[in-house]
Specification:
Elements: H1 3-11, H2 18-26, H3 32-37, H4 40-44, H5 51-88, H6 96-111, E1 170-174, E2 188-192, H7 198-211
Parallel strand pairs: 1-2
């Protein structure tokens, strides 16, 4: 930052005119970094700057820094949103038949009932997570209508799209940057393992973007 820019920035603070801005500069505060580190006592020693004005200057510098941080965060957020929008546009190269089956699977899932464990309502310790019904007289095992439904082959998704992500991509777990090289961007999308650190995650995300590969868990840890 040049002297002219620094003086101009100082003059924007309430109570600081040309003479006081020059006095602060001549007192050794020749950069914005030095002004950030300064306290009210140091600034009050400058000619023409009393303690109240020194406090005002410190507060003004703090507000400017806060505004700068907010602007930087906003710009960073906008960049991420742009990247995410571009990534969302990436779609798999699927046949017409597979697209129809994906739509069918989506409709089937909406009608699919929730499978609950036998007598989950009676014994809290069992929990609601489904387990295969047991017992000779079990009504759920016999599939009696008034009991909650159990998983059957009729509830299964079409075989060709079973296990595919809702976007139509086949999910590939990735734990290091070299594993991306074998990914087919037309039919496969990557999901970064939860054990991968932040540094390695950023490298994988960057390489995936460069290669045009869809990332399913961007920014998640």
């Amino acid at each position: 930052m040049t002297k002219k820019d620094l003086l101009s920035k100082l003059k924007k603070i309430k109570g600081v005119d040309d003479s006081k801005a020059k006095a602060i500069y001549d007192a050794g505060f020749t950069s914005w970094e030095k002004l950030k580190k300064a306290d009210a006592e140091q600034l009050s020693k400058v000619k023409g700057v009393n303690k109240e004005l020194a406090k005002t200057i410190i507060e003004g510098i703090g507000k400017k820094e806060e505004k700068k941080e907010k602007t930087e965060k906003k710009e960073e957020k906008e960049k991420v949103e742009i990247v995410e929008k571009e990534i969302k546009k990436i779609k798999p190269n699927l046949s017409k038949e597979l697209k129809e089956k994906l739509k069918l699977r989506s409709r089937m899932k909406k009608r699919k009932p929730e499978f609950l464990r036998q007598e989950w309502f009676r014994y809290r310790k069992l929990g609601m997570k489904w387990r295969k019904a047991k017992g000779i007289q079990s009504k759920m095992k016999k599939h009696v209508k008034y009991r909650t439904p159990s998983p059957r082959i009729g509830y299964s998704s079409p075989k060709d799209v079973k296990g595919l992500h809702s976007s139509g991509f086949k999910e590939i777990m990735v734990y290091n940057i070299n594993e991306i090289d074998s990914v087919n961007k037309d039919t496969e999308a990557i999901r970064i393992g939860h054990s991968v650190g932040a540094k390695k995650r950023n490298e994988i995300e960057k390489k995936a973007d460069d290669m045009g590969i869809k990332l399913l868990n961007r920014g998640q840890t």
